[in-house]
Amino acid sequence: MSTSTNEAVSIEAPRSGRIAPKYARTPGGKGNFEMFAWLFMRVSGAILIVLIFTHLFVNLMLGDGIHAVDFGFVAGKWASPLWQVWDLVMLWLAMLHGTNGVRVIINDYADKNSTRMALKSILYIASLVIIVLGTLVIFTFDPCPAGAPLELLGDFCTA
């Protein structure tokens, strides 16, 4: 199929009105939110790569490797504020990054407003619960709780 030089080819602009979007976007505030959400995905993804690969290298390559990872290893690691903050930042960024990605998927594929609202409500509640519980575990973890039976305590706990 060839066209002569005198024929003009017309291509419609994307979203030219032929296909209606699945949900209405409001101008102004939401546009800024979407831009910041897009930027957050790029920045958090780059930071997560550094956090995760450093985490894997320290836990699996240094020392005795995978054979050293047990309850005592985690207890010793979380005794240091550096590793508590490291794991906390990794948890928060991973959860917020994943939640934002799933939010975009819900917006793209959920047809009805009620379905979209329900799915995003479940997503936000589940993410909040995991972030709160994960944060509590990191900062309240005690490998040697007072009053615990001696047979349940590790060798590193003093009686």
TrEMBL record:
<dbReference type="GO" id="GO:0016020">
    <property type="term" value="C:membrane"/>
</dbReference>
<keyword id="KW-0479">Metal-binding</keyword>
<protein>
    <submittedName>
        <fullName>Succinate dehydrogenase hydrophobic membrane anchor subunit</fullName>
    </submittedName>
</protein>
<keyword id="KW-0812">Transmembrane</keyword>
<keyword id="KW-1133">Transmembrane helix</keyword>
<dbReference type="InterPro" id="IPR000701">
    <property type="entry name" value="SuccDH_FuR_B_TM-su"/>
</dbReference>
<dbReference type="InterPro" id="IPR034804">
    <property type="entry name" value="SQR/QFR_C/D"/>
</dbReference>
<feature type="transmembrane region" description="Helical">
    <location>
        <begin position="39"/>
        <end position="62"/>
    </location>
</feature>
<keyword id="KW-0408">Iron</keyword>
<dbReference type="GO" id="GO:0046872">
    <property type="term" value="F:metal ion binding"/>
</dbReference>
<keyword id="KW-0472">Membrane</keyword>
<feature type="transmembrane region" description="Helical">
    <location>
        <begin position="122"/>
        <end position="141"/>
    </location>
</feature>
<dbReference type="Pfam" id="PF01127">
    <property type="entry name" value="Sdh_cyt"/>
</dbReference>
<feature type="transmembrane region" description="Helical">
    <location>
        <begin position="82"/>
        <end position="102"/>
    </location>
</feature>
<keyword id="KW-0349">Heme</keyword>
